[in-house]
Amino acid sequence: MENGNEQKQEVTIKAFRFNAETDYLPYYKSYKMEVGKDELILDLLNRIKWEHDGSFSYRRSCRHGICGACGIKVNGKATLACKQNAIELVELFGDELIFEPQSKKRAVKDMIIDKGDFWEKHAEVKPYVETKVEPHPSSETIMSQEQVEQFLDADYCIQCGACHYACPVLEVNEDYLGPAAFAAAYRFSIDPRDEAGRDRLEKTSEMGAGVWDCVKCFECAEACPKDVNPIEKITKLHNMQFEQGVAKRNVATKHAEGFIRSIKKFGYLDEQDIVLYSEGLGVVKHLSEALKMIKAGKVHPFDIAKKKMPRSKNLDEIQKLIEISQTNELK
Amino acid sequence: MSNLKYALYTGCTARESTPELLTSTMAVAKKLGIELVLLDEASCCGASHLQDFDEFLSLVLNARNICYAEKLGLPMVTICNTCQLNTVMTKERLDNDPKMKEKVNEKLAEVGLEYKGTSSVRHFQYALIDDYGLENISKKVEVPLSHFNIAPFYGCHNIRPSHTHYKHNSAGAVAAEYGVEAVEKVELMEKYTGESPYNPTSIDRLIEALEGNSVDYESKNKCCGFHVDLQAPETSNALSGGALIDAIDNNADLMVTPCPLCQLNMDLKQDSAGKQLGRDIELPVLHLPQMIALALGCTKEEIGLKYNVTKATELV
Fold first, then answer.
1. Which of A19, B7, B306, B310 has a CA that sits 20 to 30 A from residue B17's CA?
2. Binary contact (A235, B162; C-beta < 8 A)
3. Which of A213, A239, A327 sits opposite B228 (nearest CB)?
4. Which residue in B148, B153, B126 sits closest to B137, CA to CA?
């Protein structure tokens, strides 16, 4: 609706510009415009192209938050351009908005990136129901309400890449599958029709590529424009590894399980024991840091009787609760 | 601001490898006349790792911790971001899932406890800023931090996920202004604190209240990598080292963080991160209450800088 009295705000957009075919380095170009309260980031992308520079490039398609094409970053915040009101971001970041592609190092032209790594990793977890299909089924597969609820909205993922390119692990570890692939792995493994759950659990339990390399920063949960909450699915995959006996004994799984060992004894986590127990002989690589901690008086290696370890009051309650509530074990 | 009283859930680290966190927290509370009742019955929060192993057990143990704050009739405060998040994630689950609450309470009944959901759970940082107030903290400054450029490092679990942050960490401020029911209105909570995970400001404002200069740098709301330090030290070093270098390049004299896990990772691993990233890294990393204690003129023992690995003793 046209509103002649609408208050507009002057905003400067600094847009990342780069053409991989002709440019040696990227640069930023500023565009000033009056922005109305109902304009979306996608409207501003369009206006750069239509009013300022026809060569400005970005992906867009549905304008309804469902195709996942128009993901960019605004002042570092993962943004689905067609879903994000522009003035909200002005309120958050001030009147200079910085438009950047989801991944600068994967930029092809302006906002457009080569999303190949995303699709490869997504494909690795078999993002489809794997089952022997009866060519002439005589009935539908019925899912109970409870089964549907187990999806935890993971099926809302639109593969926009917002979480993938917001994940700090992927910045430093190229093997890591990433939050979107994990959310898909969960979504299809939980599907009652599917038979590839174990393959996915094995894939996502690998060190380096799998869920054990998640740093628990919650950037993916924050970035997702569809509230898929990928880290919740990452935690579920962790749990399922133990529940289904896929978890192998390694430093990461022992670290997770080892918490119970300490809590049973002290109520608190025994910080020294958890490292020793998880690492085994690998503990030697922590020597230089251990010495620094000893020097600063932070740890007490000769306190064999654990006299300096704190103990929770009513420890018997904690022990009893572990005894009656523990549901998983590491074989 | 008179008669502020909270149940303090210390977590493990403050009782073990970072004793300076506990002494400086208690010293700050004493200086400001805030009463902190130690929850000595509480156990480890599981730090997200127990949650990976056994979700139900982690809910039971965290619910038990909250029970002890409820028994005292006090709001709970935490001094570790990871304790904060794991505790409120338990609280959210039990407050919104009656079936799970019943299952957890069945277990708790075996030791004579019941989780009710009556205590709020907040990081002490927000209790200080929202309940005590920055202007009031400012009035108590004895040693202005004006000669320091201080880089705030917020720590993931206090600010993300944002809906959890708004609902719990900013609860006190909203309740004081609009009444307890207002806490249910997420829009209001967001508006009130302005603590967006993409542009957090509370620690910057606290630094200014202590007359220090807050350093603006990109990594302030990023992850330190602590949680993968055992299985993926390269990831951890790249993240912690990257943030430290960013702070150094923006002229920080020291870094401050409300999370002891961030503090440990950033303080202890500067040599190995520096080696991996090809840079000398040396930057004192203080716990948030250590910085406040410094400005309020607490004693050397209370501030406990001797426990910081990267030399920080000359700050006093």
1. B7
2. no
3. A213
4. B126
The pair of three-digit structure tokens given for residue B242, joined into one six-digit string: 């990257």
Give the span between the Cα atoms of B52 and B82, in whole angstroms: 14
Using CA atoms, how far residue B162 sits from A189, B115, B205, in Å, is 28, 25, 19
Distances (CA, A) of A106 to A13, A292, B112: 21, 40, 57
Tell me how far apart the alpha carbons of residues B156 and B203 are, in angstroms, rounded to a whole number.
14
Residues, chain A? 331
ipTM of the complex: 0.95
Please tell me the total count of domains within chain A. Answer: 3
- Which range marks the domain in which residue A153 is found? 116-132+143-243
Residues recorded for chain B: 316
Q: Of A188, A213, A243, which one is at a domain's C-terminal end?
A: A243
A168 with B51: Cβ contact below 8 A: no
Of A92, A238, A259, Cβ closest to residue B198: A92
Residues A90, A189 within the same domain: no
**Among positive and negative, which fits the CA dihedral B91, B259, B141, B198?**
negative
| Residue A183 domain flag | yes
Strands A9-17 and A96-100, sheet pairing: parallel
Residue B53 at interface with chain A, using a CB cutoff of 8 Å: yes
Interface of A with B in 60-79 (CB under 8 A): 75-77
Q: What's the token pair of residue B84?
A: 């904060």
**Per the CB < 8 Å rule, is B17 touching A298?**
yes
Rounded CA-CA distance A105/B42 in Å is: 46
| Residue B152, helix vs strand vs coil | strand
